[in-house]
Design a protein that fits this description.
Number of domains: 1
Number of strands: 10
CATH superfamily: Rieske [2Fe-2S] iron-sulphur domain
Helix content: under 10%
Largest sheet: 4 strands, antiparallel
Structural class: mainly beta
CATH topology: Rieske Iron-sulfur Protein
Shape: globular
Radius of gyration: 13 Å
CATH class: Mainly Beta
CATH architecture: 3-layer Sandwich
Distance between the termini: 21 Å
Strand content: 35-45%
């Protein structure tokens, strides 16, 4: 059985260079628009319990508002200390103007 795709927002909800937080299927996700390409990731910093969607977005990199760790939204890779663990990212597809995210069946704790 394949992982389900879930509609999380419309393209107009996330203008280029912006990101939003969405709650879906028991998860809190960050959805970002990088020059017309949408990315989805877990919204919580892997270093400490901070919402990444309240941080800053520069290109494909999101910066944690708490301690400044950056993550690459294309890969989830932690780029700066103090974060050492990578961020979980999710595949995004478009259905017309609807942003869909493919989520694993079981939420990650």
């Amino acid at each position: 059985m394949s992982d389900p795709c879930v509609v999380v927002a419309n393209a107009a909800d996330v203008p280029p260079g912006k990101m939003i937080q969405v709650r879906v299927a028991g998860r809190c996700l960050l959805v970002a628009n990088v020059d017309g390409t949408f990315f989805a990731a877990a919204d919580t910093c892997t270093h400490e319990d901070a919402s990444l969607s309240s941080g800053s977005l520069r290109g494909a990199f999101v910066k944690c508002p708490l301690h400044g760790s950056r993550f690459d939204l294309r890969t989830g890779r932690a780029m700066d200390d103090p974060a050492e663990a990578d961020l979980q990212v999710f595949p995004v597809t478009m259905d017309g103007d609807r942003i869909q995210v493919r989520l694993p069946e079981t939420p990650v704790k």
